[in-house]
Amino acid sequence: xxxxxxxxxxxxxxxxxxxxxxxxxxxxxxxxxxxxxxxxxxxxxxxxxxxxxxxxxxxxxxxxxxxxxxxxxxxxxxxxxxxxxxxxxxxxxxxxxxxxxxxxxxxxxxxxxxxxxxxxxxxxxxxxxxxxxxxxxxxxxxxxxxxxxxxxxxxxxxxxxxxxxxxxxxxxxxxxxxxxxxxxxxxxxxxxxxxxxxxxxxxxxxxxxxxxxxxxxxxxxxxxxxxxxxxxxxxxxxxxxxxxxxxxxxxxxxxxxxxxxxxxxxxxxxxxxxxxxxxxxxxxxxxxxxxxxxxxxxxxxxxxxxxxxxxxxxxxxxxxxxxxxxxxxxxxxxxxxxxxx
Length: 341
Hints:
By secondary structure, the chain is mainly beta. The protein has helices spanning 205-209, 213-218, 230-239; strands spanning 28-30, 37-38, 44-63, 71-77, 91-94, 101-108, 111-120, 127-136, 139-146, 149-156, 162-168, 175-176, 179-190, 195-201, 220-221, 225-227, 240-250, 255-265, 274-275, 278-280, 328-340. Strands 1, 2, 3, 4, 5, 6, 7, 8, 9, 10, 11, 12 and 13 form a 13-stranded mixed β-sheet that branches. Strands 14, 15, 16, 17, 18, 19, 20 and 21 form an eight-stranded antiparallel β-sheet that branches. β8 (127-136) and β9 (139-146) form a beta hairpin.
């Protein structure tokens, strides 16, 4: 059965930083806008595939009022509220006594709920908080900064790397604090940031395929038709371990995705051949077999064209590729960079 999910569009800026590209850092998440965000119970902000032993969670918080009861601000967890080591890595609440003090919990020294309580925060003012863990002289230090002042530090003898970490602002287990958060930044976590690689809308197909070889090498387009370019793809995949996601959008609002892991794009000498370690169709429909008359990307000499044949010029098609029977509204390719090779 196909998965029914809504289209996701990612905004990304290319500039002259690395190989002419700004690559998302593998250890930085800009999880919130600088714009004020009201805290809402159960609001899942993002998912971190990995949170490293060295990390930092920082943000600004403004409380509008205080009342008794635990009030959630932010909660990083590998699963639940407090069942196992990593369910609070870290988490922050306003104290149950309604005093305006912050209660900060983290996974430290084998304690799944290692806690520290701050002094009361003023109402209707922004206060900054940074919770971090770093390695120095062979030991890991867990620290808390409030308004840029160190208020707590301890050696963590049992630091741990956590996987599949959910970031809530606020969590689903307690009422949300009456207030707002902004400038949330998490370092040390690999994020779900996807670089737009190719976008094709059916009514722009003829323009997409009617290009010179140099255009496919260098890239073109903006929104309705976008191609990042074979040269940039080679540079990215040569520098980083890279995953690729393909989203298919149909006229009847049915959408599904395919994941390709550890993707590589060859150089011009290799005719920009595409390779990948494995792929997950996430659907019995097997999207990869729809490309180029039923053969996979790996078997295709010119996988970015409609025909997948180096001796045939690309032709216009409203379908996934030449020979497909599925009529698409659009198709989007994305890349996610992981560790540096």
